[in-house]
């Protein structure tokens, strides 16, 4: 098993490429949905313990809108598409032309965000699966609006059995034209500890 | 004279013991369970993630992560402070089911399993559970006031309650 402490720069670069490929495809999908230019950030790879992860998303109590799915297949893992409630409202308004306020009580808004999450995470994973030739089957995505720690920890259960750290591949996509209404969302890809071997092997990176 | 009250924060897979007039707080419990063990002037809080330490394949485990080892450790710290075991009481919160599905079978109902494991361990130590707010599908932030013995449970959508 790949030990997280001895990942080389080369390994990290490969994981960045994984984030690039996936989020690039998702950005294209969002761009055609909204009819706007969407940019993506350079992926960042973080090795964090659980408490650091919560600080990273704005604190354990921060309310987030999250679309979560498990990846099944040869390289299992968890994936989150995370937005703030405000960004979700803005995204719903752009898509449906109706108000996306009070997203928790708005069935149309919830349904729209679930669908977006579904499409975007699907495009992320299909690009990744093509790139690595690893068979990846997403479960049905689950939309949850609640405290960050409550949501993220449940997604980290598989990892937490074996480790106190998680490797996150974080990529942000956002509208090119910045305004108050602009949408940005984070993709967090969290491969299970055993999946790193599969990913590195598939991409021809030898263990050192 | 002003009495300075500190909010002692407990992280994920963490535990702390403190004295009056401080409060103990842990944020964003989902499937995790917050376990308060207290008597009149002293209390401890553990943020438990998983039910069973023996299920881990690794030999070196973080004892504060699991219900069984974490409660033993918390109790040990309280007893070192000189409390009498027979006076201790417990309040627990958390153990929610955040998603309407879980793909992997062994992760099914982890919240529920956490609660069961915590209750079993407390029973083993003969510590009565005087209040609990567990289950459901909501995240919880809890804060325990040693002076009043009340546990405040805050949620995003269903408000605040005291147990």
Describe the structure in your own words:
The complex is a heterodimer of chains A (208) and B (163). With 208 residues, chain A is an alpha+beta fold. Chain A has one domain: Chemotaxis protein chec. Chain A has helices at residues 9-34, 50-56, 85-96, 107-132, 148-155, 157-162, 195-202; strands at 38-40, 44-49, 63-73, 77-83, 136-138, 142-147, 165-175, 184-191. In chain A, strands 1, 2, 3, 4, 5, 6, 7 and 8 form an eight-stranded antiparallel beta sheet that branches. In chain A, strand 7 and strand 8 form a beta hairpin. In chain A, helix 1 crosses helix 4. The longest helix of chain A has 26 residues, at 9-34. The radius of gyration of chain A is 17 Å and the shape is globular. Chain A starts with 8 loop residues before the first helix and ends in a 6-residue tail after the last helix. Chain B has 163 residues and is an alpha+beta fold. Chain B has one domain (7-162): 60s Ribosomal Protein L30, Chain: A, CATH 3.30.1330. In chain B, 18% of the residues lie in helices and 34% in strands. Chain B has helices spanning 67-80, 110-124; strands spanning 7-9, 14-19, 23-29, 33-38, 42-48, 89-94, 129-134, 140-145, 150-154, 160-162. In chain B, the strands form two sheets. Chain B has a five-stranded mixed beta sheet with strand order 1-3-8-9-10, with no helix packed on it. Chain B has a five-stranded mixed beta sheet with strand order 2-5-4-6-7, with helices on one face. In chain B, a hairpin with a 4-residue loop joins strand 8 and strand 9 (150-154). In chain B, helix 1 (67-80) packs parallel to helix 2. The model of chain B has no long low-confidence stretch (mean pLDDT 88). Chain A binds chain B through residues 50-51, 54, 59-61, 63, 68, 70, 72, 104, 139-140, 142, 144-151, 153-154, 157-158, 160-162, 164, and chain B through 11-14, 27-32, 49-50, 55-58, 62, 65, 96, 98-104, 107, 110, 138-141, 156-157. Chain A: Keywords: Chemotaxis, Hydrolase. Chain A: This is CheY-P-specific phosphatase CheC.
